[in-house]
Each structure stands twice: as structure tokens, then as C-alpha cells.
Amino acid sequence: MKANIMVVDDERTIRDSVQMVLQEEGYTTEVAANGKEAIELLKERDFDIVITDLKMPEMDGISLVKHLQKQCPQTLIIIITAHGSLETAIEALRSGAYDYILKPFDFDDVLIKVKRIVKHKELLLENQALRAAVQEKYDFSKIVGQSEQMQEVFSLIRKVAKTKGNVLITGNSGTGKELVARAIHYNSERASKPFVAINCGAIVDTLMESEFFGHKKGSFTGAVRDKDGHFKMANGGTLFLDEIGDIPLHLQVKLLRAIEESEILPVGGTTPIKIDVRIIAATNRNLMEEVEAGRFRDDLYYRLNVVGIRLPSLNERREDIPLLVQHFIEKYNRQLNTNVRNTDNETMRILMNYNWKGGIRELENVIERALILCESDYITKKDLPPNMISEEFTPDIPDRLKDAIAQFERSHITKILKRTGNNKEEAAKLLDISLSSLYRKIDELTIKPSSSI
Question: Which residue, among 414, 425, 351, has the nearest Cα to 381 in the 3D structure?
Fold first, then answer.
């Protein structure tokens, strides 16, 4: 970037010579004879850098620094001072100046300091842009879904994001657990701090403690230097523990202690390290069954499950499939430089009736493949994987999406009720919904007992 710079000095020779040197380097430069003139210029335009003398009539450099800190916090300041005024320069630095130049100064030194500030500004702007992009990407409103189940998830995200409580996210593979974890983090007070994700199932048991808590040099074979663990890397932010059910019992004890005491002890270390980390854990297992089987500690389970969020499978939220399809079409149109508009009706019916064992990931894969193969404005069934076309498909499904979804749900729930002998508790478990949700569906879809047995 070529910065806009203001030079403020009551000595005309100094301000004009500095202006000339900066302009020769391509910087846009304005000059002011004192602090008051500088403030008037600041009302007209923004400046990236202000280079100001300390000793000036009417308004000195210290007063200008304080004004800039309040009114123009994005502007960085370089102080010009004589050797005898070094203490005043230190006061200016404490007031918010970024750097200082001693008189008599070397113009090369001025350019070096300006270039350093410009680089610093570029990094600041880049970080702000990246943070804004990440926050926008993981804003919960970007999670696709209008179904009742997803609206309940959104409501929980809004509530838990405002708190510091630990969260346990459960759901099948491919339901978007990490996306929800990031949405919670980036909508919380910790958004500017690190979000560190770790897949517990991908770490060898013998290295898991080191990965979590770090280690000291020489603590084990191969520990050639000190290493920070994920807890320390996430300090001040959020640690996302994916597949938490894969953590071995001996490490669960240490994880529980780290959560309860807010401190960790690196492998081979003797001094505990205080940490401030919010834990969001996720699993596709039934942790209560793991607890009952003795494979997961109940005290750790309750520490993690302060707030539980269950993500519905794609088969449970079929009304969201058209939205997700459109979302993935738009995404891969950008990536593949294609211009597909949507699917035709027959293809959408196939997608609506398919058994999505792989969840949203499988749907995304199908749409990406379809866009690569598609030769028209609309995805047709020939663009789908052969196994999807070969599966049984009912051609008399209504065209209206709402009617099609209702017909499928009525047929599927009726089939499950018949299989369980109209045992609604068992049917609810097979459908992976609550008993109250099943009763509500039976009422909404007018499923009669006689049609269920």
C-alpha cells in the first residue's frame, strides 16, 4: 500500500524536506505547521501515518498524539524529538505514538521507519479482513436450513454463543458438527481469539497427552524440543475436541482435571500452566451408552455436556434438501466456473427420496460430481451416480415440495410403525427423533393406528 502521510513541524525547512523525500518514494504527503493545522487537515481526510514534532506553538506534539488516539485510532504516529527531549518522547510513546525519530535525523532512517509502519498497517488490515471473512463464513445464519429441527439448533447456537459454558455436539457423521462449533466460537466474545480443532480419533494413544498438553524437551524419545499442546494454543479461545468418545480412559482423567482446574501440565513438566479455554466437544457416539459400558467417565461427560446440541441427520430434515442443493450448486459454480441453475423436477425427487447415509457430505459430493458432468442449465438424473438412479423410485410423488415431503414422511413413519408393531418408543428410536416429535408427526400427517399395524 502507498500510505497517506502528514508531516507536522513548525520549522518549514524540516517539514518541506521530509515531504519531498516521502513524495519521491511515492507516498501522498501533506504538511502542517502545528497541531491545530493538523487537526483541520484530519477533518478533511484520513491519514495512515502522522509524523509530528514534539515542541510546537499553539498545540504541541503530546496533545496531538492524545487527540489522534481518541479521534483517529487507526492513524499511526511517529514522534520527532531532540536528544534532550527523550523523556518527553517516552511519554508520547506511552500516550500511543508508534515510534520516534531523534534530531538531527537521517532521511534513510525516516524511510525505514515509515516502511516498517506501512508493513505493520498492511498486516493489520489483512488480519482484519481475514477475521471479518471468517466471521462471515461461520456466522450461524450461513448454516443452511429452514426445517424445524435446524431452527431449534440455531436458537441454541444464539444462546450458548453468549456464554462461557462447555458444549457437547452430537450427531451422525456428515451433519456439520465442526461448522456449528465454529459458528458458536465466531459469534462469541472469544471470536478474536484462536479456534483450535483436534480430531481425537486421528491421534495415536501414546501421543495424545503430548498433543493435548504439550511436552518438555527430553521427556520422551523424539522430544527434541519443547512443544506447546492444543490447550495452550487455544488459550483465550475455543478448543474443539472432535470425536471425543475416542479418548482413552487414562487420558480422560487428565482432561477432566484440565477442565476443572483450568490448568495443564506438559509431559515432563513440573510447573502447571494456567489456561482459559472454552471446550466444545463433538461425537457421533451415544456417550451415555459409553458411560454405562464403562468406556467413558460420567464426571467428564457431565463437565462436557453443560449444553447439548443434537444435530439432525439429513434424512430427518429432508425439507432442507432443496436449499442445500441450491447452496452447493452456487458454491461449485464459482469453483468450477460453471453456470448450472438447478435440478429438474425428476432429479430433485430422486434427491428427496434417497437414503443419505453419508449425510450432507454425501449430498455435497453428489452435487459437485453432477456439475462436472452436467451439459445443460439443469442437473438431470443422468448426472447422478448410478446407484442413486437404480434405487427404487416412486414416480407419482407430488410436484409441490411440501406435499412431496409430507408423502415421504407419512410413508416412512408408517413403515417403521408397522415394523415395530406400533411400538412408538421403539419407532422413535429407529427414526432417531424424540417421542414427542413422533406423536406430533403422527398428528400432523394424520397417520391412523389402523394404517400402522
Answer: 351
Alpha helix segments (H runs only) across 262-357: 287-292, 298-304, 321-336, 345-353
Domain that holds residue 10: 4-132
Residue 396 lies in a domain: no
Bridge partner list, 10: none
Cα 147 vs. chain centroid, distance in angstroms?
Answer: 23
Residue 52 neighbours by CB under 8 Å, 6+ apart: 7, 8, 9, 35, 38, 61, 64, 65, 77, 78, 79, 80
DSSP calls for 374-391: --SSEE-GGGS-HHHHHS
Contact 53, 9 (CB under 8 A): yes
E strand or H helix at 107: helix 107-137
- pLDDT recorded at residue 278: 95
* Residue 302 contacts residue 168 (beta carbons within 8 Å): no
Long-range Cβ contacts of 418-422 (<8 Å, 24+ apart): 418/452, 418/453, 421/453, 422/449, 422/452, 422/453
Q: Is the distance from CB of 287 to CB of 168 less than 8 angstroms?
A: yes
The verdict on 239 and 153 lying in the same domain is yes
Contact between residue 213 and residue 257 where contact means Cβ atoms under 8 Å apart: no
Q: Parallel, antiparallel, or unpaired for β 278-283 and 378-379?
A: unpaired
Q: Where does a domain end: 290, 312, 334?
A: 312
Beta strands in 225-363 (DSSP E): 238-242, 263-264, 273-274, 278-283, 307-310, 342-343
Residue 330, SS3?
helix
- C-alpha cell belonging to residue 171: 450427531
Q: What is the mean pLDDT of each run of 10 residues along the chain (453 residues)?
A: 86 90 91 90 88 84 84 86 68 79 83 88 69 55 76 89 92 86 90 90 86 87 84 93 93 93 89 92 92 94 94 89 91 93 90 89 95 94 87 56 80 84 87 88 78 38
The closest alpha carbon to 297, from 257, 344, 328, belongs to: 257
CA distances to 16, 105, 192, 391 from 11, in Å: 9, 14, 43, 85
**Cα separations in angstroms, 71 against 62, 66, 117, 409:** 14, 9, 19, 60
Does 305 share its domain with 372? no
